[in-house]
Amino acid sequence: MPLCVVPGCANPGVHLFPKDPTLKKKWEKAIRRKNFVATQHSRLCRNHFQESDYVGESAYTGHPQICKFLKKGTVPSIFPWSTQVSTTPTSRTSRYMKRSRRILDFIQPSVEESVPEPSSSAEIEISTIEGSLEDFTPKTVSVSTQCGSSFGILSLEAMRGNPQAIHFYTGLEKYEKFMLVLDTLSPMCNNLNYRGSKVINVCIGDQLLITLIKLRRYMPDFELAFLFGISQTTVANIFVTWINFMYEIWSLINIWPSKGLVQYYMPESFKRGFPNIRIIVDTTEIPITRPGNPVAQQVTFSSYKHKNTVKAMIGATPGGLISYVSECYGGSVSDRQIIERSKLINMCD
């Protein structure tokens, strides 16, 4: 996604410049870039617009818009050289909570103002800085959000007592197993650097749930966005962030079992016919979008799958435990080349 064109801003651009020539000139003048002319790809991020610049409640449903749309004639007004302060994570969170309360009051007028304390798994840690620039102290504010969006159909809390649903969507047998997996990523998962903007309206448990559902069921982003009551951009932001995060943490685990452990769990049929077998290997190919670079197209094209892929060597013990995953290569590489470049021979003693 193109970055924001405002000088000194590195946020992803969201809002395209308007097509109206007069309004477009006002936008170009507001960002204060000398001799700047906006193209069809030029964008501004949301940090340069006030909350009042966006359309509030839908004229058709009476509810706040899920996706933000600028009002007609809006001109960006928040910049580093202006006197107004840019939006902070805390103010974004407070606005989200206010919107949620208004909708809950609309749906359930009898709901009391007090909200019970959520569990620790449904808390998001947001760091803020209070005080002057000369003397400031970091302060951690615990911002509570319900496990899942207020408008979502699916959430971890909704599946807590339904092991069949958890197994269907994630492959894990029950809720306790899901929490065990989440614990292996804690407490680092409470302070993630997201690929896009910080996610504040989906709890940590639901973010892992979205990632596992994407891996297990291969749901499109639109379907996940509908089920969890969030935008497709948020789904993509969560998935890419968590995939990289899980790799960084779980790649530190040594999954290679000892020879004695392999033989202990070896099925009887293998003990009789292949008692010294250590690992069973095979390659798997994952389809990818065709690269724009011609060299990359050639390297990743698989003559076996007749499409662009990445290829990896997967190994399992006779008992069925995945014990080896090689580096990924372009689909044109042979199985023999992957074995020769790996450390698998030395690992087998």
Task: Tell me what the structure shows.
It is a single chain. The protein is built from twelve helices and nine strands. By secondary structure, it is of the alpha+beta class. The chain starts with 14 loop residues before the first strand and ends with a helix. The chain is globular. Helix 6 packs across helix 7 (232-250). Strands 5, 6, 7, 8 and 9 form a five-stranded antiparallel β-sheet that branches. Strands 1-2 form a two-stranded antiparallel sheet. The protein has helices at residues 21-30, 89-107, 163-170, 175-183, 204-217, 221-228, 232-250, 259-264, 268-273, 294-300, 335-341, 344-347, and strands at 15-16, 43-44, 123-131, 136-144, 280-287, 301-302, 307-316, 322-325, 329-330.
What attributes characterize this protein structure?
zinc ion binding, THAP_Znf, 34% helix, alpha+beta, two-stranded antiparallel ribbon, 9 strands, DNA-binding
